[in-house]
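=== RUN LOG ===
request id: a7f3
mode: sequence -> structure
chains: 1
length: 172
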Amino acid sequence: MSVRSRLVSLVVLVACAAALALPASGAGAVSAPPHCKSSQLTLKFVGFQGATGHRYWQLAFKNKGGTCSLRGFARVQLLAANGHVITSDFRHEKSFPVATVVVAHGKRGFVAYTYVEAGFCNSGQFYAPKAKVFPPGNGTGFVFDMVRGNDGAPYLCPGSEGVFPVTAKPGP
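=== RESULT ===
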């Protein structure tokens, strides 16, 4: 192989490597909007269901800012009446798919959590009148009054708490 052929091969090889190192763009690439910040969201109550001792809460992060995205699991803490954290040990309900949810201005991304009502556990039940819900990846949460949504005092079985991934539509 001549020196010229080797030089051409080297230039082609370097050009290909540089092209592969660049971020994807063009027709096939999809870039998610920036991650939603707590400051551009509000938390809204959507619904509550209860059956056979299980309680299911549906809430929504409503976007009051520019288009952004949510992905993953919200963090939920159960709080005492004085605001102290009782538990934040919510297991991730991994049998549901995790997807990036794009939330335009005025639109919502939904989060749900569940637990077993205290009447269905042997011992250790606790009272949690409030919940603090954090958007995925954010440090600032929103306090939610569970007494009002539950139409009474919510008592829970410890270890029964689960949270679903954020979704574009209500329901996990």
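=== NOTES ===
Residues 38-163 form a domain with the Immunoglobulin-like fold (CATH 2.60.40).
Confidence is low (pLDDT under 50) at residues 1-29.
=== END ===
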